[in-house]
Amino acid sequence: MAIVYHADADGTSSAALACFAARALGAEVVPETPDKGENVHSPAFGARVRATGAALAVVLDTGSRPGRLFEVPTVIVDHHRADPAEAPEVEAFVSTFGDDRGTSTSALTFELLAPIAPIAPRAWLAALGLLGDLGDVARRHPLVAAAARQHGFTALREAVSLVNAAGRSAAHDAGVALAALLEAERPADLARGDGEAARRLRALREDVAAATRRAIRAAPRVYGRWAVIELDEPYRIHGPVASAWTRRMEGRIVLVANRGYVPGRVHFSVRSHEPIDLRAALSALLPDAGPDVAAGHDRATGGIVEVPVFEELLRRIQGEAAQGAAA
Ligand SMILES: [Mn+2]
Q1: 162 and 225 share a domain?
Q2: Ligand 1 centre and the CA of 224: distance in Å?
Q3: Which residues of 104-141 are buried (b: 16+ CB within 10 A; e: fewer)?
Q4: 291 in the same domain as 258
Q5: Cα 233 to ligand 1 centre (Å)
Q6: What is the predicted pLDDT for the residue at 244?
Q7: Which residues of the chain are under the pLDDT cut of 70?
Q8: Which residue of 8, 182, 256, 261 is most buried, as measured by CB atoms within 10 A?
Q9: Among 209, 240, 269, which residue terminates a domain?
Q10: How far does residue 236's CA lie from ligand 1's centre (Å)?
């Protein structure tokens, strides 16, 4: 079984739950996550999944698109925005279609697998994904409340930040986070345990934290309702840097672009303190940019574009600001 996952706290904890369940049911598992600059729809990634020889691919928290995903039979579990009329061509598609106010992929995965595999002692993994994606709002979720009673809220939150750091690292060493979750008996083992993967994970987080501290010092350029920051970092820190600036840029849409993540392309994150439909705001400026732009969530989106497309986006942001000033 190929277990394909998004390399953040939600996707990685979902993958850990699926690994435990599949092994308990007698399957051999091969975890796979897209490399830097790749996604699950990249042909090279599809070829890697095929090369595993897996009889089934279980795809967790990666978003979805219409059409066939892999050549092998595929199950998708996801909570990103999707059009129910254009579901992907897979054997099973479990989705909230973006209505993720109360759940995460990890919670969906746990609910699906707990009745058929002995994963109840690992319910705290579902809590990690909920906290990672929903933040403190997730404290009200029964899985988070139960995990916090048993393991302490601080240990859960620290585990989330450690797992997220792996996917953000310059080497995109997501496998370390999954290995640390698989070796951990409890969330505190990530922050304090002496497992080999946990130690490597803590070192990665130090690197990512130092890069983030550096990047957060760059001041935004303000164009109308947009605030733009440009980075040149091999780390996937554009999202956290954008989130960090939203409070100080109240009323504005914060766009953090990173030219250093994958050379030749610009990866960018869009966030706001206000409940603005950011996907709509971005799509209005780049209506023909394709599926790599304005995916994700209304409150957290972004894109991956070639450098000239990004330059065009900047011009259109400036154009929108000039129009607003004239009105
Ligand atoms: Mn998620």
Answers
A1: no
A2: 31
A3: bbbbbbbebbbeebebeebbbbbbbbbbbbbeeebeeb
A4: yes
A5: 24
A6: 95
A7: 100-101
A8: 256
A9: 209
A10: 16
